[in-house]
Amino acid sequence: QITLRESGPTLVKPTQTLTLTCNFSGFSLNTDGVGVAWIRQPPGKALEWLALIFWDDDKRYRPSLKNRLTITQGTSANQVVLTMTNVDPVDTATYFCAHKRGTEMDFWGQGTLVTVSS
Amino acid sequence: YVLTQPPSVSVAPGKTARLTCGGNNVGRKSVHWYQQKSGQAPVLVISYISDRPSGIPERFSGSSSGNTATLTISGVEAGDEADYYCQVWESGSELPVIFGGGTKLTVL
Q1: CA angle at residue A50 from B2 to A107, to 5 degrees?
Q2: Contact assignment for B42 to A108 by CB distance below 8 Å
Q3: Sheet with strand B68-73: strands edge to edge
Q4: Do the beta carbons of residue A50 and residue A80 sit within 8 Å?
Q5: What is the mean pLDDT, run by run of 10 residues, along chain B of 108 residues?
Q6: What CA–CA distance (Å, rounded) separates A4 from A6?
Q7: Which among B53, B85, B89 has CB closest to A106?
Q8: Beta-bridge mates of residue A24
Q9: Cβ–Cβ contact B60 with A under 8 A
């Protein structure tokens, strides 16, 4: 059974760096074709894909945020970390991590709400 | 690449809801659909245009042709009220994962 869980701060000040961790179980990031994606959703708005890390350590970023995002494998084999620098109130959102099987996200974490405010 | 979804669709219980997702030649792409109930994470309900993941009721079906993909929900129930998002994968693009803007399905 695949599960994912996001963790990180609930409140971040503008200009600070946000670090979110996705802890997962039930799959290996070493399996061909597998990936872990980060997607966010501002309050009342649509889903927005942010970043992806693939089984072969290839990485993709949303072009408009590419300079601020870094996705990496965590300290354990079952972790993926997303870092976002220089946060702004517009980055206030629920952040989800999800398992990418083929071209779809078939399992999602519950999400974590991050508020950017001074 | 842009996916366009109507902001809202309303349907009476027991009727059929058809939610559309428009995009240039979307009929040639693998379209996935997600259901997101209020305060919850999205759930994959249709993958690769018309495949139902395990546990998704047969009432949910998908199709695609030309510039429109459609999620059809037959015999709509109150519990189907949710936001629905379509998604495609743009291979070779700088923006590989694209979501539509979502449709709010209201069960009257």
Answers
A1: 95
A2: yes
A3: B17-22, B68-73, B60-65
A4: no
A5: 97 98 96 98 96 97 97 98 97 91 98
A6: 7
A7: B53
A8: A4
A9: no
User: Does A59 score more than 90 pLDDT?
Assistant: yes
Contact state of A106 with B94 under an 8 Å Cβ cutoff: no
Q: Is B97 on the interface with A (CB under 8 A)?
A: yes
Contacts of B43 in chain A (CB under 8 A): 108
According to the model, what pLDDT value does residue B40 have?
98
Q: What is the DSSP string of B37-98?
A: -TTS--EEEEBTTTBPPTT--TTEEEEEETTEEEEEESS--GGG-EEEEEEEE-TTSSS-EE
- What is the rounded distance in angstroms from the CA atom of residue B15 to the CA atom of residue B96? 35
C-alpha–C-alpha distance, residues B63 and B59, integer Å:
13
Given CB atoms, is B23 within the 8 Å cutoff of chain A?
no
Q: How far apart are CA B21 and CA B40, in angstroms?
A: 22
Sign of CA dihedral A75, A66, A97, A85: positive
Residue A92 has pLDDT above 90, yes or no: yes
